[in-house]
Amino acid sequence: MKSYLARPNEIERKWYIVDAEGKTLGRMATQIATVLRGKHKPEFTPHVDTGDFVVVVNAEKIVLTGKKLDQKFYTYHTGYAGGLRQIPYRKMIAEQPEKIIMSAVKGMLPKTRLGRKMLTKLKVFAGPTHKHEAQTPEELSV
User: Fold this and answer.
1) pLDDT tens digits, residue range 77-111?
2) CB 111 within 8 A of CB 32
3) N or C, which end of the chain has less CB nearby within 10 Å?
4) With the CA atoms of 111, 116, 118 and 123 taken in that order, what torsion angle do they form, in degrees rounded to the nearest 10?
5) Residue 112 belongs to what domain range?
6) Taking all residues of the chain, what is their mean pLDDT, rounded to a whole number?
7) What CATH number corresponds to the domain at position 135?
8) What is the count of structural domains for the chain?
């Protein structure tokens, strides 16, 4: 018996919507990464992008447990000497809540060209409205 390998032109993609209000960041990000990767489907193939699209709304109302709002930092480097920058998550939620969810999910996807392609299927919005109503996304229980 041969193993089934999905072909890129045979994959049917669905759209899902996730309401992030009151959800824990890490627990929500793992389930979003699973859907983006396609591991929830029986035809999952590791070297083919079999995942679905995910729309996240209310990103500004995400919850971090414990003291992470003040103790956890978003760190990046500008590329110049002494250019290490650290921004506390409390400030990130106020200014760029979409970036928090994107970086959490990005860390859970493969670090390859395929992983970067999967991340483009994630659409994050700070408020309750989004511009993908035409795709009629289904509610994803997180």
Assistant:
1) 999 999 999 999 999 999 999 999 999 999 999 99
2) no
3) N
4) 120
5) 13-64+96-139
6) 95
7) 3.90.1180.10
8) 1
